[in-house]
Structures are given as C-alpha cells and as structure tokens.
Amino acid sequence: MGIALVILFIAILNYIFLTKAKILSRLTEIGAKKALGASNNIIRKQVLLESNMISALSLMPAAIIIITGIPFINSTLQKTVGEEVFGMWQTWGMLVAVTLLTGTLSGIFIGTNISRTSAVVLLTGKMQRQQKSHKLNHSFLSFHFAIFIILVVSVFTFKKQINYGLTNFKSIDPNNVLVCELNSPELQKQAQVIQNELEQNPNVISTAGSSFIPPFNAFLPIKLRTEEETVRFDGLIMGKGMIPLLGMEIIDGEAFGEFKQDGRTNIIINESTALEYDIKAGDLLNGFTVRGIVKDFNAHSLHSLIQPMVILQQHPEKMRLLAVKTNGKNDKSIIETIDRLVSQISPESVSEVTYLTDQINQFYEREQNQAKLITAFSLLSISLAIMGLFGVVLITISKRTKEIGIRKVNGARVTEVVEMLNKDFLTWVIIAVVIAVPAAWYAMHRWLENFAYQTSLSWWLFAIAGVLALAIALLTVSFQSYKAATRNPVDSLRYE
C-alpha cells in the first residue's frame, strides 16, 4: 500500500510536468481568451476540466490492466480475487476518489499558475521566463529515480537472499532427493519392502525412512533432563540410513544402525549440544545413550539459527516419509516405480512424490512473492520516471530553444548541444543515486535481519541500479535533445 501511494504521487507529479510542457505550446490560445475577457476563474475551470477528463479516461486502460493482472495479484498475494470485485461499491468508490483526487490536484496546480499570468505575457509566449521552478522540477526528477533505484536494489537483494537460502544449507545436501508420503498403515508397515524394491533401480543411490526429513518448517521440541535442569532441544525422528543419505557428517561415534526393541534408546546429538553440555559419543544424556554426534546442519530454513538438537531413531514400521536419493538421470522411472508399489500395497492410497528442494522453496514463498510484486512496481516506477523525465526535458528545451538556435548559428555541433542538455539532467540523476544508495542499504539491511543467515549487500547491487538509472535517463534525454539539436536554427530563432 505504501509503494502504491508513492507511485500515485509520482503519477500526479508526472501529469503536472507533462501538462506544463504542453501548456507552453498553448500560451497564445490562453492569452487570447484572457484578452477577450475570460476571467481567471474560467481559465482555472478549463484546465481543471481537461485534467479530470484525462484522469477519467485513464480508468479504461487501468481497468484492462487490473483485469489481466488479477491472476498475478492472486498468486503473489495469495488471494482469490475475481472480476466480481468490479461489482463492489467499495471498488468504484476508491476508483472515483483516486480519479478525482489525481485530476483535481493536477488541474488546480496548473490552472492556478496559468490563470495568474497576464494576457500580455501569455500572448508573447514568454511565460517560461517567469518560471522559477527549475530546481523544483529537477528535484522531483531526482525523487523519481531515487524510488526506482531503491526498488531495483530491493529486487536484487530479495533474489540474492532467496538464492542464498536455497543453496547454502550447512552440512546437508537436499539435491536429487525424492520424498514419498507413506500415508496409510499398510504403506508404513511395508516401507522396507518398498525400499528394497527401489534399491534395485540402478538410478537409486540409497533410501531411508523417517517421520521428518530436514530441512522442514515445523519444530519438534524434545525435553530432556540434564544434571542441572530440564532443557528443551530442537528434535528430529529419523530412520536408519537417513543421515548418510542427506550427506550429514558424523564427527564422533556412528549413525543409527538396525532398530532394536530392547528398551534401550540411542540418540544422536548435534555439535551444538555436544559443545554446550560437554558430551561425547557413548555418554548418557538423561538415560539415553549418545550413539553419535553429527556436525551442525540447518534443520529448518535460514530464518532460524541452528539450535542444540537431539535426534531419536524412528521405528521402521511407523515412518511417515520415505526419502530416495537418486543420481538425477531418470527420476521419472523411479517415480513410476513408487506409484506402482503404492497402488499394489495400498490401492486406496494416492502416491504423493515431491522433491525435497521443492519443500525448501516453500520456505521462501513469501519472499519470492514480495520480489515479484516489487519487480512489477519497479517496472511501473521506471515507466513513470521516464514520463516525468520526458515532461521536464520538454519544459527545459522549450525554455532554451532560442539559446540552442544561437549556439548552432555560431557553429555549435549537434553533439555539443546534446552534451550540454544531457549534462544538467544526468547531474540530477547522480544526485538521485547519492540519495537512494544509503536509503536502499538501510531498508535492505533491516529486511535481512529477518534471516539468521544472510547474504551480503554487495556493492554491485547498488552499482547496477545506479547504472540502469543513468542509462535510462541518458537515452530518454538524448532522444529529445537530438531532436532539438537537429532543428533548423532559423525556426529556433523565430520561436519567440
């Protein structure tokens, strides 16, 4: 909502700039009306009416964009908005209010400015000389590009952090791991049969069962009594073979072997637990034998710090999930085998096979949607920035038309005129870069605080955004500057 309001504010400013540029070509018309008796109030009403008409006409393309953009809105905001939204009075009330606000504010600003100018000044076409808004126009231009730079840096940072979260799990390898849900008692009891069958496939490296396969979003608290207090650990329940399947490293002791129902329960702890409580493999922890110590790994998303963890061994007939490590060459045949086995063992069950990496992607669904939304706003903001720049360029060139003609008569080349006009605008874009970089750094630094493990705010994020802004400004200004520079100097000298 905040970004939308800023975009609306920029749109209003752009309309003012473009209308001011257009008004400069209508000075004689307006001056003639004033000379023939039109009052200031009539001039204001004319400009206000024109402004509101243009604003109202903009509702048609806006409605088309909204209708075509509803699927995008639903996917990024996880809503179920349909075209029936146009049947709600709140929607039309908002559209009418925004339309009137945009048209009225623009019209009042421009109309008041024009109506106060005398007919003599308007008829001579020299109104621009009375204008003292050069710095104001360019400062708004800097504001436009600063918003664009901040949004671009935000998009790059979002995507860089998401990619970091997907590829930088510590001491665990989730790639090429298929996960099958054992969603019936029959499947859970026959888990070993399914594993044996799958391991006959030459594309299967290993299989293992579990109730939880890290990394996962949920937390399983396990309370154990130490010598001094009861401590709640981050917990996992894993079957034989899961630790090597996920590429986790045992730094002391060994991984789980065959499950024994002799009343003795072995556990595996992570490095953080061993260091905090000075425990080695073979020691007892609240009556549990520590079979091994695994190197610290990310059991959850990178939003969370690695916590002291206790891993219990899973009963082989109570596993809810089956993991299959493949070589990635023919996963389709493996999935078909799983489907066949599930239908044979439990005909009423539906085989659900996913990739572990897809599960990880869901950790960052919110951030991915934010990135998509801000990308859309970035494209909109640069479109508005270009339009605003276009308006300011037209105003500036109209003020310097005669100067350009004199320079050309005195031998100035087209490239020199273009360079002269570009230099001023690029200075203001550089000012926008100077303003936007610290603002973007602060905003992204605060956003990255949501993650326990963060990517760095690299300098190239800001460099790319700044170069993009400068390139877009250069192309936009150069286009108009070239047109002005190649104009017949005789026409330029007769402009006033």
Q: Helical segment tally?
A: 19
Instruction: Return the structural class.
Output: alpha+beta
Per DSSP E runs of 2 or more residues, the count of β-strands stands at 11
How would you sum up the global shape? elongated
H/E element order = HHHHHHHHEHHEEEHEEHEEEEHEHHHHHH
End-to-end Cα distance, whole Å, is 46 Å
Average pLDDT value?
83
Helical percent range? 55-70%
Regions with little confidence, pLDDT below 50 for 5+ residues: 128-132
| Largest sheet, strands/sense/barrel | 7 strands, mixed
Rg on CA atoms, Å: 34 Å
Tell me the strand percentage band: 5-15%
> How many structural domains in the coordinates?
3
Q: Nutshell version of this structure?
A:
The protein is of the alpha+beta class.
Tags for this model:
single chain; 496 residues; alpha+beta; seven-stranded mixed sheet; four-stranded antiparallel sheet; 19 helices; 11 strands; elongated
